[in-house]
Design a protein that fits this description.
The protein has 178 residues and is an all-alpha fold. It is built from 7 helices and no strands. It has one domain: Arp2/3 complex 21 kDa subunit ARPC3. The chain is globular, with a radius of gyration of 16 Å. The model has no long low-confidence stretch (mean pLDDT 91).
Amino acid sequence: MNSKDLALTALFSALYAILVIVQGLSAAASIQVRLADALIPLAALFGPPVILGVSLGCVVCNAYLSLSIPFGFLDVIFGPIANLAAAGLIFKMRKKPLVGCVLGAVVIGLVVGSYLWLLFPFEDAILPPFLISIASITMSSLFALAVLGYGLLRAFKRSAVIKLLRSHGLKIYMENEK
């Protein structure tokens, strides 16, 4: 990893953490979509710096947000693992990025949904709480990754943007669009 990769990792880490924390402190906190997850599909374009960045950023923001929640340590441990797995999967699937985004969202839904119900119990639920949690997180992750993130990825894949990024010495792992 060279200095540009390190800087890009730090940038994505900080951006992810800031987006989550600002969303949590703002009126957008009631939105049940982690908007910062839209950065995860950029792993298809930038590779390891994004994979590591969104995972480290998740550690930081989850540690900050979980201080006052019982079992919050689960989110600090497993949230970043979910991001790491999803971003790595999207990177591996970069020739089919929309499929990668959908699969990444399923990974996040399964991992985070499997413990999130412990942090925020569902009262009077008809279905088992862990199923509600998995379904809810998967749906919100589908929106964040396969709609917002995929759109962001397509915008970055444009020929002029790729040319600009490469002119600054950044390694790009996907082909640009005409």
